[in-house]
Each structure stands twice: as C-alpha cells, then as structure tokens.
Amino acid sequence: MLSRRLFLKSSAIIGCSAAAHPLLSSIAFASAPGENRLVVIILRGAMDGIDVFQPYGDPELRKLRQKISLGPDQGAHDLDGFFALHPSLSSLMPLWKAGELGFAPAVSTPYRDKRSHFDGQDMLEAGTGTDLDVFQQRDGWLNRLLHNMPGAESETAYSVGTEQMRILAGDAPAKSWTPKINLKLGPQARMLLQHVYHDDPLFREGGLEGMEIASQSMDRIKEKKGPTRDARELARFSASRLNGDTRIATFSLSGWDTHARQSVTIDGALMSLADAILTMREDLGKNWSKTTILAMTEFGRTARENGSGGTDHGTGGAMLVAGGAVRGGQALGKWPGLGESDLYAGRDLMPVTDIRAYAAWALHDLFGTERGALESSVFPGLDMGENPRILA
Amino acid sequence: MATYPELAAIRLGYGLSAQTPPPAGQDEVLASVKRAVADADGVTMAAVRKGQSRLINLAKKRKNGDKSAPEAIKKQRQSLSLLVLRDTQRRFARAVDDPAGFGERLVQFWADHFTVGGGDVVRRVMVGSHVNEAIRPHIGGRFADLMFAAETHPCMLVYLNQNNSVGPNSQLAKKKKGKNKPGLNENLAREMIELHSLGVGAEYTQKDVRQLAKLLTGLTYSPGHGDNFRAAYAEPGKITVLGQSYRGDGPPKIDDIRAVIEDLSRHPATAQHLSRKLVTHFISDDPPQSLVDRLAGIYADSDGDLSAVNAALADSPELAGHFREKVKQPFEFIVASLRGLGVTGEEIMGLKPKQVRQWLEFPLTGMGQKWGRPAGPDGWPEAADDWITPQGLAARIEWAMNVPQKFRKNLPDPRQFMQTALGETASEPLQWAVPKAETTRDGIAIVLASVDFNRR
Asked: Which region is the signal sequence (chain A) (predicted)?
C-alpha cells in the first residue's frame, strides 16, 4: 500500500508531462496488438440483474417480488429452465441461441455497504480493491492494461461518448470521441483553420485529427431517431473504430436506477443496451467473431421489490457478455440463492465472484496478458481463481 | 507587442469585451477582486438543507409505499436541478459582465484549488453554495480564512468523507460496539495537506495525516443539524500535527481546527505550493521559478494576505514575457467568446433551461470540462495538451461555428470582430485567413477557434 501511495505521489508530480515522455510515447511505433476486440459497457445507475436474468427456477423469487421479474408466464424468455431473459431484451434471443450471449448472475466489485452510485462506479472503473480510498484511484483498469500490452498505441483504445470514462483514464495514451460532435466544415473553412493552426504543433495535430474524425463520423452517423438513438450512435462509432486499428472501446449507458415502477422504467435502458449490442453486431461484420462485449454495472439491487414496485441499491448483480468470440448460451458461475440466509445483509443478492476476475480472464484470453501482470498491475491484489472460460 | 490593458484582459481576466474597455491599469484589475463577492440571490446552504430534508422525507414515504412519493421526488429533484442551472448561468453572467474579470478568474481558481464535486443533484447544489458562501467572500483576504471556510463547508465535508469520520475514543464511538463502531476517515486530512496547503512534495508523513484526521473529527454534516461541529464525535486529548500540538485536556472545540489551519497556512511549503499553482494557472504550464519565489515571499511577509499576492501577480512583467503559453480552459473559452460578441449577463440570465444546456453546459462537456464534475479532488488539469485534444478542439470549433449565431442574428464583420476580440495581438496567419472566409459565420468561427484566441 505504501508503494502504491508513493507511485501515486510521483505520478501526480510528473502528471501532465507523462504523455509526452519519450519512454512512454515510443511504444507508438510498435505494431498493433492482434485481431481480438473488447468492448466494455458501463451500465450506470446499478442494473437489477435479478430482473434482467430472472431466476424463475428459484422458488424464493416469487416471495420477494410480485410486481416485477415475473418470469416466462409474463413474457420473459426461458433461457435454461432456471433463468429467463427480460421481455425487453427479446431482440437478443437469437444471440443466446447462437451462443453469442451469456451472463454471470451474481458478481460484484469489492465495494460494500455504502451503496453510493458514484463510489461504486469509481471502484468498478478503477478495478482496485478496498485497500485504497476510492477517490484516490485515479487511473482505470483499461488504461493499466495498455501499459501491459505490447504494441499498444493511442489508437488502440477509445472512450466514446460525453460521459467521462474513468476506466480508460491514466497516463497511457488513448483516444476519446463523442459522436455528438456535429462539425460540418466547408473545404475553405477547413483550409483556413489548418493555416491558422500550422505554426502550433498542438493545434495543428489536434485540429487535423479532430476534423478528420468528425468528417468520418458524420458520414457514418446518420442515426434514425427514436429512444435508443444515443446508444446506437455510441455503438456505431465504436464499431467504426474497431473495424480500424482500435481494439478496445468503452462507453456507458445510463437509466438503470429503477427505484419505482420498474416494470416500466427499466424498459428504455434495456432497449438501449440491446440496440447497442445489435448495432455493433451489424456494423462489425466479420470482426464480430473476434469481439467480446462485457456490460458491467456498479452493483446490483435489493432482492426484494420495494413499496413502489421498484428496487433499491444492493450488492450482487449481473454481468452480461456478448459477441461472436464468447462462449454464450449459458449462465456463468454459481447461483447463491434467494433464501433469507442466502442474502447479503439479509437484503441483497450475495456476490459469488469478483467481477474483476471475469474481466481479468477476458483480458488474459483476448490479449494474452499474463496472469502476474493482471493480478499485480491491472487489478492489483486480485486473485483470479479458475478460468471461467468466457471465450469460446 | 501586447499592451498592458490587453494582457490584463486576456491573461488575468476573461478576454477583451465588445462592451467595456480593458482595464487601464493595475487598480482596475484589482477592483474586480472586490466586486467578486457572494451573490445576493446565489445558492445558500439554507436552501440546500431545506431541499435535502424534503427529499429525505419523501424517500421515507416512498419506502412505506406512498404512491404519490415517486412523482413528488421527481419534482423536487427537478426544482433542485433548476437551482443548479441558475447557478451555472450566474457564473457565466458575472464572468461575461465584469469589466476586468480578474476577480471572477480568481473565484474559478480557488474553487478549483478547493475542488468539491457532485454526485447527485443535492451535492451539485451544495457545490454552488461552496463557491458562493466559502470561496467568494475570501479571495481577496487571508488564505487561512479562505481555507477554513472551504474545508469546513458541508460540501467539502461530504465530498471528502469527513462526515463519516469519528474519533476512535470519542463519546459516540465509546457507546457503540463491534461492527457498528465508527472510526476515522483520512480523506479530508490527506487532501488538506497534500492538495490544499503544503503540497504533495513537502516534508510530512502518514502519521501527520493520521493525526490531522483525528483533529478534524467532530466536523460533520447532516441536513437537519445547523452546526457542523459536534464535540461528541471528536477525538479527545492532545494531538500533534507537524510537530505542533493541539487540543489539550479541555473539551474538543472547532477552534482547534482553526488553529491547525492557521499553522498549515503559515508553513513555508504552503507559500511555495500556492504560488506555484497561481503562476502555473495564470502565467505558464512551465512556471518561472523567479516569479514563484517572489509571490511566495510576498505571501510569507504578509502572513498569507491574498490581496498582496494578487497585486504582485497583476503587476508582474512575466505577463508579457510568457504571453500565450497557456490554453484557455473550456469555461474561459466560452466566456471569452461571449464577451467578444458583446453578449450581456442579462441575456445569459434570460436563457431558457434548454438553451443553457445546449449552448453552454453540453458544449463544456464535449470540450472536456463537465461542469461541476472534475475527475478528482485535484481539480481540472492545467496543461495545454490536456485540453487541446482532437475531441476537445473539435468541440471548440463546433461551438464557434454554431453557437454565436444563436446569440446574434446579425454577426459582426469578422475583420472587425478579430479586432474586438484580440486587439493588436492577432497573428499574421490569422490576419491572412479571416478576410478569406466564405461567410461571416465561418469568419467568426475562425477567429474563435484560432490559436490566438484559445491561448492566453
């Protein structure tokens, strides 16, 4: 812990100059790292895993929930005789059948008890344990992965959207872009700006690249209107980069904080998630077979529904995995049960696996990252345990 | 060569204005510090407590199955969101209107030095109160008073978890047993030393942080309590921080905390740390050590009087020597653009919520400065390359192309606008480019998106 603290201190001092450090930037000349692609979607607001993957085979479910999570009788799609998929995700059923969709029903970060969205998300994105105050965890685990990825360059990883993605923050160079930028420039205006920027390398390079990406994404992003448009835009831009030199993309979807009338209020978030996945599948084409999507949330929600037909902040939750590269069509890991004594603190789903272990094994299998680096640097202090074999 | 009025407006303020002439001299620059006082109709903690208490009551009702509660919670949150939005408008309006702007820049600087961030809507309203009630009254006074106000404000207490910190031997801790026994949280203590006073490179140890954390116990916030110090939460007995002892045998008092802040503010490392930050922010990402030392000396000799430091900064020859070594942060960029266009604070206050979001708030996010949401307690970055990224610059160009015409149906002649916004400081390439723009709109955008305008 002391050495980590010292590391933070010294990185705070070098801070801004780190990106320009010759040792760090020299990796930009190495070759691009492999063909496998990873998309991490952060589901902000705490997705109710029990409602998304409904454990209707557990007899306790009906005692805890009467208005929501009603199983196949009320339109949910049976998955394996025990779990059923929420009706609003029906468009993903073909993926389940093709073995391109799976989930881990009871996972969590090491975060416990305070149940604050912001601290929970910070810990999820930092990928660290409880040995360090949450707010000191400034860099994210995808950024630390880049440090352990031979051949990584700034184009390798992209954070997409206006939401800050702490998961990719840190001193390893990475790109960010929001498809919301709507920059139409005529050729004359573009030429004049390039002239104005010419003598200032920072503006010259930033301007050139910014105008370039803007014009490319303008061609691609003519998204149909509708409630899931933002999600489709994020997914389409991500796919466009992943079809190029990018191998890691991350963005977030919100709308999961369903404290009341969850049977209605969760719909929009679920449809956005489904459309994001389907958009990527469509746009990635043959690259879909090399793609793994991990959709993670900061924590789960209470096992019991509350007085307003919603759920409150909990602990264990679900992680969704999708993509042509995954070993789908099944639930990953154990189911802890919903009996009174099975629950965490008598109220929340008990997490059976650290969500970071799944992420770590995914990185191991996708990018060949060594276990030693994963357990010490990317997810410091993590015990990865057995390989759950997310990938096919 | 830029004149002093131009340098003062561009480097110490929010840029040249179509409405008011730049400050003629140092006196006019410093007068703006006196104007940057708290808003009469700004956000107050009293308003926060009221709104927060209502939300807590409604949440209880919702838990008990009250059908009307979810709708009432939504309404209450919306009304708090509007408070936040009004507060944002006010920050823009005051920065746009003030003739010299140095005071408003200092508000931004010190609010960032004592960063607090949101979370939920309640926290975001509290951030407004922190700026209004803790920062604004002290930017021209003693640093110790500013620091005391900033550290003990409820927003800081919540942001850095001080409200979860209880003395291990306090009256409260003695009453509880086992898992529920409360304990220390070091967050505020650590940042008070590491970020707010001595700086991370200074000579202090983990033990000093731990001891300061003990001394800070008692500081806490809950919406129903008017007093943010509760002796029952405080660690009793003598506590030593950086070789100085505080809190003897008597009952714990908030004065102990005032005393340690006085001592932290007088530490030589604090003078260096604050001076370096000021020079980095106002002069150069690579701050000239001679100016840092000069300001630190003035700070030490005046017992931490910020008015003396402000005066020395406003008078420094380095303003001319390091011109355009800094990049305007996104908030500065938008304010400076509006000043150049002659938009008034009154117009900004008259915007509809949707307009504030689309023309001011969302663009800030695209440029990398999500308003009220810095990534951590060390605030916004200072380095030019943190802001001028492909996305950050594209978002500035986009704003320059699209938003000016929302405010002004008849945009000014671009050549004249270049003169208004940059005075005699426009570079050759810009003077060459602007007259060649195909449309007025493009011409204005090229001025606003230029290196000349985005650097200061």
From this structure: 1-30
Rounded to two decimals, the ipTM of the complex is 0.94
Residue A39 per-residue DSSP state? E
- How close A368 comes to chain B (CA, Å)? 30
Report the residue from A9, A16, A135 with minimal CB separation from B377. Answer: A135
Residue range B137-184, pLDDT digits in tens: 999 999 999 999 999 999 999 999 898 899 999 999 999 887 677 889
Distance from C-alpha of B428 to C-alpha of B447, rounded to nearest angstrom: 12
- The token duo for A157 is 């990883």
Residue B327 token pair: 């990049």
Of all residues in chain A, the one with the smallest CA distance to B382 is A16
Tell me: pLDDT of A218 over 70.
no
CB contact under 8 A, A180 and B366: yes
Tell me if A259 and B186 make a contact (CB, 8 A cut-off). no
* Pairwise CA distance, residues A124 & A111, whole Å: 8
| Average pLDDT estimate for B343-368 | 96
Q: Which among A138, A186, A198 has the least Cβ separation from residue B376? A: A138
Paired sense of beta strands A53-54 and A101-108, if any: unpaired
Listing DSSP states for B107-164 in one string gives: HHHHHHHT----SSHHHHHHHHHIIIIIIGGGTTSBHHHHHHHHHHSHHHHHHTTGGG
Taking the C-alpha atoms of residue B19 and residue B163, their distance in angstroms, rounded to an integer, is 46
Nearest by CB to A162, from B285, B365, B446: name it. B365
Confidence of residue A180 (pLDDT cuts 50, 70, 90): confident
Shortest distance, CA B189 to any CA of chain A (angstroms):
13
Range of lowest pLDDT (A355-359, B99-103, B186-190, B345-349): B186-190
Any A CB within 8 A of B435 CB: no
Q: E strands, B218-337, where?
A: 239-241, 244-246
State yes or no: pLDDT of B55 exceeds 60: yes
Residue A248 has pLDDT above 60, yes or no: yes
Cα of B6 to nearest chain A Cα, Å: 21
Domain map (residue ranges) of chain A? 35-179+227-378, 180-220
Task: Please tell me the distance from the alpha carbon of residue A126 to that of residue A141, in angstroms, as a whole number.
Answer: 6
Q: B96 with B348: CB under 8 angstroms?
A: yes
Average pLDDT rounded to a whole number, residues B358-386: 92
Q: How close A323 gets to chain B, by Cα (Å)?
A: 28
The pLDDT of residue A293 is 98
Q: Which of A203, A209, A261 sits opposite B70 (nearest CB)?
A: A261
pTM attached to this predicted model: 0.86
- Provide the residue type at B371 as one letter: W
Fold of A35-179+227-378: Alkaline Phosphatase, subunit A (3.40.720)
Cα four-point dihedral sign B122, B127, B128, B133? positive
| Average of per-residue pLDDT across A45-70 | 97
User: Please, which residues bridge with residue B114 across strands?
Assistant: none
Distance (Å, whole) CA A71 – CA B348: 52
Q: Is residue A192 a contact partner of residue B433, using CB atoms and an 8 Å limit? A: yes
Least Cα distance to B117 among A372, A247, A80, A166 occurs for: A166
Selected residues 178-217 of chain B with any CB under 8 Å from a CB in chain A: 186-187, 200-201, 206
CB pair distance less than 8 Å for A185 and B397 = yes
CA–CA–CA angle A114, A117, A118 (5° rounding): 100
Q: With contacts defined as CB-CB under 8 Å, which chain A residues touch B390?
A: 175, 177, 206-207, 209-210, 212-213
Interface test with A, best of B120, B281, B389, B430 (most A CBs within 10 A): B389
| Opening angle at CA A296, ends A293 and A299, nearest 5 | 170
- Residue A56 near residue A82, CB atoms below 8 Å: yes
**Is B450 within 8 Å of A19 when comparing Cβ atoms?**
no
